[in-house]
Write a structure and sequence with these properties.
mainly alpha, MetI-like fold, 80% helix, membrane, transmembrane helix, transmembrane, MetI-like, MetI-like_sf
């Protein structure tokens, strides 16, 4: 009895809980995920195969009709471009945030967090105001004499990429900032003392140590971009359908729930496969 008491005390002192206690604390979250996510997804996937008898017709339709594969490919391509742009634009911001202190750091953090707290719908409509034919961009260019007639900026693939990058960039900046913040500054100073320049020190020390943040941010941005609905639907229009807007169209307009479930199943498999490849690539990069 005394040994068990000592062991429990040691676990409590070390901040560890027993497995039953951990499961008890996690049970509400597990129930919430099961009822709000796993059960609806499982029901949707079940309906794509059993309608009511087992059939692969919905999945064969995706392969047989090229338009659906084209939309899926466009969605993956758009998500990849958005992820790359978010990394290129967000990494310098995260690096500056990690170097600053005091009011300057609070100001930069506010510039990152305030858009994150703003509704996605509001930010998407803001891009419509900016990019429409009589919007701010076209009006400014015409008043400066750069163009003679409005450019088609809205309802294009470029508009979707720009708007999605703006909406999802905080999800890239914050994990990278957290990773950069955890790097001891002594490592950079040691590299500089050994003769490395600023750029060499960044490539050899800072960038490799920030890979976990890059991985976390890239995964979040990529997965969110694959399933993004509001911004592509508003900014891209019907000419630039993504897989999420196609699923929404099948459920709300055509009421074809089995085919929507098949599309969701394919998207789920593609997402898990690409995440697995990216994770293996990151491990290879760490080894290199």
């Amino acid at each position: 009895m005394a040994n068990a008491t000592v062991a429990a005390t040691d676990r409590a002192t070390a901040g560890q809980l027993s497995r039953p206690a951990s499961l008890t604390l996690a049970l509400p979250l597990i129930l919430l995920l099961g009822l709000a996510f796993l059960l609806p997804v499982a029901k949707l996937l079940w309906g794509s195969v059993f309608t009511p008898s087992p059939t692969a017709e919905n999945y064969l339709r995706i392969v047989q009709e090229p338009i659906f594969l084209k939309i899926l490919l466009r969605t993956v391509q758009t998500a990849a471009v958005v992820t790359c742009l978010a990394f290129v634009l967000g990494y310098p911001v995260a690096l500056v945030m990690s170097k600053l202190g005091g009011r300057a750091a609070m100001l930069v953090a506010a510039c990152v967090l305030i858009p994150l707290w703003t509704s996605v719908l509001v930010r998407s409509y803001a891009w419509i105001v900016l990019l429409q034919r009589t919007g701010v961009v076209n009006s400014t260019l015409m008043s400066w004499g750069v163009i003679n007639e409005p450019l088609k900026l809205i309802y294009t693939e470029g508009a979707v990429i720009v708007a999605m990058t703006h909406v999802l960039m905080p999800y890239m900046i914050l994990p990278i900032f957290s990773s950069l913040r955890s790097i001891p500054p002594e490592l950079d100073r040691a590299a500089r003392n050994l003769g490395a320049g600023p750029w060499t020190s960044f490539i050899a020390v800072t960038l490799p140590l920030s890979l976990p943040g890059i991985y976390a941010g890239s995964i979040m941005v990529f997965i969110l971009a694959l399933g993004f609905y509001v911004t592509p639907a508003l900014v891209g229009g019907p000419q630039n359908l993504t897989i999420a807007t196609l699923i929404g169209q099948q459920t709300t307009e055509l009421l074809n729930w089995p085919f929507a479930g098949a599309l969701a199943g394919v998207l789920l498999v593609v997402t898990l496969g690409l995440v697995g490849l990216f994770r293996r690539f990151l491990r290879f990069g760490k080894g290199a």
